[in-house]
Amino acid sequence: MGSLQAGYGLDGDGYIMSDVALDKIDNVYFTCIRESVEELVRLFPHQLHSVYVYGSVARGEAVAVKSDLDLLAMFNDTLGEKELVELKAVTKVLSRKYHTLVRDVGIAVANYDYVVDPANYYEQAFLKELCVCVHGEDLREQFGLYKLTSEIAISFNGDIHEVLARTMIRLEAATIDEFKILVQNFARKMIRTYYSMVMVRSQIWSTRLHEQSDVFIHYFPHKEPIIHTLQKWIEEPPINRELVLDLFQNEGKWVTTNFEREAHITS
Question: How far apart, in Å, are the Cα atoms of 156 and each of 98, 103, 263?
Answer without folding.
Answer: 28, 23, 11
